[in-house]
Design brief:
CATH superfamily of the largest domain in chain A: [2Fe-2S]-binding domain
Largest sheet of chain A: 5 strands, mixed
CATH class of the largest domain in chain B: Alpha Beta
CATH topology of the largest domain in chain A: DNA polymerase, domain 1
Distance between the termini of chain B: 57 Å
Helix content of chain B: 25-40%
Largest interface: A-B, 33 and 33 residues
CATH architecture of the largest domain in chain B: 2-Layer Sandwich
Shape of chain A: globular
Largest sheet of chain B: 5 strands, antiparallel
Radius of gyration of chain B: 20 Å
CATH architecture of the largest domain in chain A: Orthogonal Bundle
Order of helices and strands of chain A: EEHEEEHHHHHH
Structural class of chain B: alpha+beta
CATH class of the largest domain in chain A: Mainly Alpha
Strand order of the largest sheet of chain B: 4-5-10-6-7
Shape of chain B: globular
Number of helices of chain A: 7
Number of domains of chain A: 2
Structural class of chain A: alpha+beta
Number of domains of chain B: 3
Oligomer: heterodimer
Chain lengths: 207, 311
Amino acid sequence: MSAGLALDFTVNGKRRRVRVPPMKRLLDVLREDCGLTGTKEGCGEGECGACTVLMDGVPVNSCLVPAVQAAGVKIVTVEGLAKGPALSVLQRAFVERGGTQCGSCTPGILVTAHALLQRAKGRVPGDAEVREALAGNLCRCTGYQMIVNAVRAAARETQASARKRAARAAKPGARAKVKSARTKAKPAKTKVKTRTKAPRGRKQAGR
Amino acid sequence: MRAALSTLEVARPRDLAHALKLLHASLGTGRLVPLAGGTDLFVMLNAGVLPGRRFLDLGGLRELRGVREQGDHLVLGALTTFSEIREHALVRRRYPALAAAAAEIGAWQIQNRGTLGGNIANASPAGDSLPVLLALEAVVHARSVRGTREVPFAALFRGYRDLALEPDELIAAVSLPDPGAPRPLGGGAARRGARPPRAKQFFRKVGTRRAQSISKVVLAGLLRLGRDGRVDLARVAIGSVAPVTLRAGRAEHALLGARPSAVVAAAARAALLKDIAPIDDIRSDREYRLRVAGNLLEQFLRVAEPRFARR
């Protein structure tokens, strides 16, 4: 038992070692000891989700996690979503669709939404599914609709580019071409179709 | 005001036996406070309330993890998270009320960290998993240096946030009987092979919103009809309406042996109001809770058996 803990963990793909008090909040470890101030503190009681980070792939409130329980785990913060200077598809969708206003909740929401899209594995989650996943992230500006729209737009874009890639890889067959042309032509109307056809398209790509 | 977290100490046991030894040894000098998912503990710490200065990190104890079948019981390790519970195929099939409760505790972030054992140990009268565990007649496995003790859920809460556990005991697991299997006590007539059908299960929490809220009223129920069309199993457990989560004995009594009808439902509702003693507090008031508790009971009965709606 000691007040100082040598904490070894992985943050955004990089191995880190910091010496911190064992009950220091993961939120403070990230901000103060790792210099990653993208993660915000909102309520400090697990209600608002502003401090959301991924811990071994799942979203948690970093204000409720003691440093001692972060030993050996993989953390992803909002800084880990972009590839260098290039925003992720999700981040771009938030910018383009007004998914962010004052910005306090945005890092947490991006992290939770990122986890949702990872889990959906190329499927476009429905409105209700996005809202349930984001229920632990409070936003006081946007009214949420723009956020939900941005998340789903990102999912559609990811799906479309995965299809294009798959079509190219599988020597442009007639079906794949027709499909991508269709989704391009009338994106609004094919919403349902896109969703139901997603798994089939993906399977074909695998073969 | 936040507590000075930098001065707090944490013991990191190698295994469960070591944890139990440390906990037992700490009783003379200031009890180690067990730390599981931290979703309740850190709310206190962040608010400046110190439940202790020294903590026992249970996070690394494999013995407290995992879900396994044992005979016709399902045993959930104390560190099983609510995400694990809501996604577990057998829990969803056999204990849908528990899966439903797990899906409404906090939100995704909390469900990924909050544990079943922690929800029990926190012993809040508004704890969302507690009415389900009570209705399912769960058994808590309490471990200490002296061995394992099984505490039936009905005997677990002595009073407001007062658990019938020794200070050096840890909740190691929770075991759930098959709700379709005959009761271990008083169910002597049930023969092997003639297992009665599973009871219908119900869970509903009423709060200010679906996620992240603390219950104003939370109710879990089990209902089964016998071959003769009479209720032969009725369990109603309810939270946020008394100092502890409780079984609504009078309401259950009004249901047992009765043929489902609107009259019986109304009688059960009247009886329920004598089972509970809600208070006015920051989340709701007594009148509202009495009304909603009655509504939830009637909804449970009608969902489980449509004849409860008929005159």
